[in-house]
Amino acid sequence: MTDINDRSQVDTEPVTPDTSVSKAISARRKLLASLPAAIAAATLPALAFGRAGEMDIQQCSEDTLRRVAAARFPDVTVTDHQGQQHRFFADLIQDRVVMINFMSIEAEADYPVTAQVARLVHSFADKIGKELHVFSISYDSTNDTPERLAEFARQFDAPEGWRFLTADADSVVALGLKLYRAEGRPHRKLDADLIHYGNAASGLWATVGSMYQDLDLSRRRIASVMPREVPPSPQLRQAGPRRLNTHGAIYDNAEPGRV
Amino acid sequence: MTNRRDVLKLGLAAGGMAATAHGKVEFRQSGLVFPQGFTPSIEAAPSPPIVPFKDPLFRMPVATPEPLSTFNPLPDGRRHQRFYDFPPVDYYKENIVQNRWVYHTEGPYAQGSWHWGWQNDAAGLFHAPGPTYKVRYGEPVLVRRLNNLPPVGDPDARVQFALPSITIHLHNGHTASESDGIPTDFFNSGEFWDHHYANFPAGFDNREIMNTLWYHDHRLDFTAPNVYAGLSGFYLLFDDLDSDNENDPNPDAFRLPSGDYDIPMILHDVQFNQDGQVVFDFFDGGLGPRVEPEEDSDTIYIGSSNFTLFGMLGDRITVNRTISPRLTVEARKYRFRLLNGGPSRLYLLSLRLERADGTVVDNHPGLKFYVLTNDGNMLQEPLEMESFPLWVANRVDVVVDFSAFEPGDKVYLVNRLEMRDDGAGESGRLLDEGDLVMRYDVVPQNPDVGDPSRIPDFLRELPDINMDEVRRERLWVFDYDNGQWTVNGRVMDPNRIDALIEQGSAEVWTIRNSGNSWSHPVHTHFEEFQFLEFNGKPIANDSFLRSRKDIIELGPNEEYKFFGRWRDFFGTHVMHCHNVVHEDHEMMIQWKIVPPGMGD
Ligand SMILES: [Cu+2]
User: Fold this and answer.
1) Which residues of A47-69 are buried (b: 16+ CB within 10 A; e: fewer)?
2) Is the dihedral of CA B76, B77, B78, B81 positive or negative?
């Protein structure tokens, strides 16, 4: 438990809007040189742009911002791990219940986000590709080729319906900007990231922490945005509270044994 | 007219920012982090125009109990801690449904906006906010809440951004965990939940009596959209002193303005599309999410350019879900119970006078509040204040004495706090003129009623702070890490208990903001606490903060220390940021009350 006098929780150099420029640059230099994997999505644009060569970062960033603002949802072209090209929104997301995360093959060793996604994917079993579509978007545009992503997908025994996507840096940042406002400092002690889930047909969107412990609850959070039918009945079911001193899942207080 | 532009927080005036001609703060862009200069929906797609002060303030109906014989199945006392110690004297039902709600009677708003709210039968009034409970200490109640919202995917589901899986929290009732409405105690369409409210003061100490409470959705991951969709309302508790009777013959009674002169007001800022439908910041709502892509454009959805983890701002400030309403007031005292229902906007409220001839006066002696409560809890003595902050979930009860004004005068409730564009906290500046939240139109007193109400010199004594009861101290650091809102470097995990607190013990908690740009209205459930220190200094005896509270107004780089007790029940509750967008992503911890000897 946290010690009341422990000042180590205080970040000495927080990156905030007013100080972000210089600190982000030095942070990027330091971290890219040492351990890029550990910084994960926090510097997604830095990684994507940083590896895209000599592009003018400032200009690119502004272009991306303009593009996202105008596009509302960036319907960028992405390539999946089987080499097929798609429009991200029109072909893959629209009308579907989806789960989305950002990843890179290199980062996975230190930051096993995709492994956590895989637990969820396998818990949904044959619903994947039918009731739930999963997209893992690489922010390492340079190294994560469709071929490498295909090999990566095989490691996770990825079923049809779980696609690993790559796109040019500008497009990846556009997606990141829409889905993940990842401005902030890298905090290497924090082993957490967000997995987005949503129902694009209805417009429900939420996140679950990627380092979740409770697979059943996380699965249920995602399933909650799937279409469901309530049998027409004048009698409502009592969801809770359950009888005292009885036990069950924390998220379902119905009497044990009830469905 | 005050034209000064006050800088609230000197620390914010650091390098890298520039104020433009219209007073907005501009942050320099960086290619290495996501650019700060995104356009919020309130600027990119403003709500349709309105005719301000056209519509009267909505007055929520008072909740009425129903016969126990109408409950099927009957409530089951074995599901509730101490049910038989506090058997309900009244039973209530809430039927939560979707319908159209009219925020404003002009333009596209007039057709009604698809909304969540309350409707007891198909022919009855559909309304949001919910019914106002007026209940008394010593009279326990049970509330059965029926979720009759259309399920996800139902063709009739028109509130697109909210999840019809709900849990209703009584903020800040002294309520057992199973009736508290914690995030994981949700019930879906076609299900109900029974909430037992024992209505006794914490520790059976009358100094712990609370007066203005509210209820709202608290669903894991979806609190912000679900409250925004309509799920909030008032729960007022009365006792022998605050007795709901301005003519009370009891010599100890406060005799505060009561009945028609005691008006709960909940503020929500809401964003609308051109069809007059409510939109949540990420994607469009109401109309159906898709619009035709334009030629040579990627346009498909309408919404903010970000999935907003920072905050949700609307450009229409509503009071009791009416846009910029008016209220006709007699030239006498009124009690207004002001509540900020969120999602993210913070307010600094004051009054402004417009004479019948159009002259605007900012310094009339009647333009003040007699502040009775902080977080709905009576202060020791009323405070006279010209303005007061109202952060999300704060309840501030005030008396305004309109006898200081002439019939024909118009008095405005004004907000002067400017928010950051992204909704994550104060910008650090005050708005020059401010937003006019609502208008009070002064008419003569009703001679049949007059004004028998009083503002007492003394209200409620504070409970003792006894440091001998303190079993341990804890530190909670609120921050932003890796693009996520964190407490002590961690995101909410519903299966993790972050503190095991022994029943009957006291603890001292330090609440620290490690960010220097954003604000967190931090809320802990179940019992009120008292501040010991703010930024290392004791709280002055005449301070507005010298009160029982359940919200910590945690500004950039600030730190509060409080003394709290945990009594009477066992079980799991939460502490979280009440900028509910932060809460949903996942700025929350869980604590649990355990038997003595089993704490951590
Ligand atoms: Cu917050």
Assistant:
1) bbbbbbeeeebeebbeebbebbb
2) positive
Q: How far apart are the C-alpha atoms of B158 and B144, rounded to whole Å?
A: 25
CATH of the domain at B556: 2.60.40.420
- Whether pLDDT at B28 is above 60: no
Burial class (CB in 10 A: 0-12, 13-18, 19+), B32: buried
Nearest chain A CA: its distance from B327 CA (Å): 36
Shortest distance, CA B278 to any CA of chain A (angstroms):
13
Reported ipTM = 0.85
Q: Give the domain-ending residue among A44, A69, A94.
A: A69
What is the per-residue pLDDT across A231-243, written as a single tens digit (0 to 9) for each? 777 789 999 998 8
Extended strands (E) in B7-131: 17-19, 25-27, 90-101, 113-118
Q: Are residues B334 and B366 in the same domain?
A: yes
Domain that holds residue A44: 15-69
Q: What is the pLDDT of residues B407-427, one digit of tens each?
A: 999 999 999 999 887 788 888
Q: Say whether both A214 and A92 belong to one domain.
A: yes
Residues A35 and A127 grouped into a single domain: no
DSSP structure class, residue A89 = I
How far is A7 from A178, CA to CA, in rounded Å? 35
For residue A8, tell me if it sits in a domain: no
> Into how many domains does chain B fold?
4
Instruction: State the pTM of this model.
Output: 0.86
**Which of the 8 DSSP states describes residue B272?**
E
| Partner residue opposite A181 with nearest CB, options B186, B309, B477 | B309
Q: Please indicate, yes or no, whether residues B474 and B554 belong to a single structural domain of this protein.
A: yes
Beta-carbon contacts of residue A219 (< 8 Å; ≥ 6 apart): A120, A123, A124
How far, in Å, from the CA of B575 to the mean position of ligand 1? 12
Residues of chain A found within 8 Å of residue B76, distances taken between Cβ atoms: 243
CB-CB neighbors (< 8 A) of A225 in chain B: 152, 163
Residue A253 counted as domain residue? no
Q: Do B140 and B239 sit in the same domain of this protein?
A: yes
Q: Do B32 and A46 count as a contact with CB atoms less than 8 A apart?
A: yes
- Looking at A24-145, which runs of residues are DSSP E strands? 77-80, 85-87, 97-103, 133-138
Ion ligand 1 nearby residues (CB, 5 A): B 520, 577, 579, 582
SS (H, E, C) B468-536: HHEEEEEEEEEEEECCEEEECCECCCCCCCCEEEECCCEEEEEEEECCCCCCEEEEECCCCEEEEEECC
Query: Among B152-156, B214-218, B315-319, which stretch is predicted with the lowest mean pLDDT?
Result: B152-156
Residues of A in contact with B185 (CB under 8 A): 240-241, 253
A 88-117 near B (Cβ less than 8 A) = 89-90, 94
